[in-house]
Design goal:
The protein has 287 residues and is of the alpha/beta class. It is built from 9 helices and 13 strands. Helix 5 runs parallel beside helix 7.
């Protein structure tokens, strides 16, 4: 069963507009990444209280805290960064969600010319940090969903599997993003097959191969790109999947801090994904 959610900041930075559009789409969950162009972990306590009041009044819930935890260089101080995870856990308690989206670190110094062939040099430190994060999450009764983001250690199917199998914690699972594999030059079907045993969360966006060099600077309507989204949805449905599918279409662009789709195009992406669910005999749930 797939429960639809959304990175609502792709609709608008205004939380009221976010909710209005999602209500029109009959989507009642949000993956909370930002409002008012401010990241969730940088919001004040007052802003958090106001957003929680708005969600409660409109009958919305969170699928996860869409944190940027793990989106820092692997050689940056870990203790300072761990404080961000602690803040994310605090927000889980506020919003009543047991889930946090995380990443597995950029190259040293966030070097744009880093050769991925050099990742083995830093592999043990990545595993150590991800293990420490998972241990803290488990003690807090929280599940971390690792997203296979471009340029982090876990952008390649083999490295995603390495993280999850090596840490081997029920508090660290995979968020499968087919478009991210395409954008990174990987086969999304291979990505699914190598990580499906750990996958407990879906991000829904699609992409054409080649990236900006081929004129593909934004996502495409789900099902029209090279992400082969039906492959993973059909397989997950057949295996009895019960969790979230989070709309993150990037139809007007995307980058390291998120993407933008707009209030006009977002409903089209939701409609297209619902068709994929029907075609794959996958049931949509309400939470």
């Amino acid at each position: 069963m797939f429960i639809l959610s959304a990175f609502a900041d792709e609709i608008s930075p205004d939380p009221r507009e976010q909710i209005a559009v999602l209500k029109s789409c009959n989507v009642q969950h949000i993956e909370f990444r930002s409002i008012h162009k401010t990241n969730v972990l940088a919001l004040s306590d007052e802003q958090i209280r106001e957003f929680k009041k708005l969600l409660d009044g409109e009958g919305f819930q969170l699928s996860a805290i869409g944190s940027p935890v793990g989106k820092v260089p692997i050689d940056s101080p870990f203790d300072i960064h761990l404080d961000k995870l602690k803040r994310a856990v605090e927000l889980c308690q506020v919003f009543g969600t047991p889930n946090i989206r995380v990443f597995s670190f950029y190259p040293p110094g966030n070097d744009p010319n880093f050769d991925p062939a050099n990742w083995p040099t830093h592999r043990d430190e990545v595993i150590r940090r991800m293990g420490a994060m998972a241990e803290f999450a488990q003690l807090s009764k929280i599940t971390l969903f690792h997203e296979n983001e471009h340029r982090i250690f876990g952008d390649a199917p083999d490295r995603v599997r390495d993280i999850l199998a090596s840490v081997n914690s029920p508090a660290l699972r995979a968020a499968y993003d087919a478009a991210n594999y395409v954008f990174g030059g990987f086969d999304p079907v291979e990505g699914w097959e190598k990580t499906k045993a750990f996958t407990a969360h879906f991000h829904i966006k699609d992409w054409k191969r080649g990236g900006p060099a081929a004129g593909h600077e934004h996502g495409v309507i789900p099902g029209t790109g090279d992400g082969n989204i039906p492959y993973s949805i059909r397989a997950a449905a057949a295996a009895g999947y019960h969790g979230y599918a989070v709309m993150e279409p990037h139809l007007r662009g995307g980058g390291p801090t998120g993407g933008f789709t707009g209030p006009d195009l977002f409903p089209l992406a939701v409609k297209a994904f619902r068709k994929i669910l029907r075609d794959c005999n996958a049931e949509e749930g309400t939470g």
